[in-house]
Amino acid sequence: MISYIAIAIAFIIGVVIAFPTGIKYRKNVAEKELGIAENEAKRIVSEAIKAAETKKKEAIVEAKDEIFKLKSESEREIKERRSEVSRLERRVQHKEETVDKKIDNLDKKEEALSAKLKAAELKLEEAETVKKSQFDMLEKISGFTIEQSKDNLLKSLDGELTH
Length: 163
Description:
The protein is mainly α. It is 97% helix and 0% strand.
């Protein structure tokens, strides 16, 4: 029986010693696992941060590339439009110069025509004056008025026609 008691006491002492030691061991293992898990979590977070920063840098580089492409394309389009505007301006300027020359030519022709018209009117007036003076002279020489001369001429023609 003593041996049972000794076994029971040894068992109780073993349990009393082993239980706190087991708890301490479990606590140490749990703390170690917790530390490993924390380290793993820190490593994962660190990798995630690095990956995020890498993605961020890649996105920034891609955005800068896209901005550069858009800027280059915009500058090219602006250059093309300016070139087209310059071409159109030159064309309009050429047409304006042509129109100005035509207007000048028309003005010169109009002046020349006006001068010719005045000269023709002067000649017509002069011819009318000469004609009137000749009629006056004929009236004096013949002694007939214009109406009388017409009547005389008609009678003469009438006589010749009947003859």
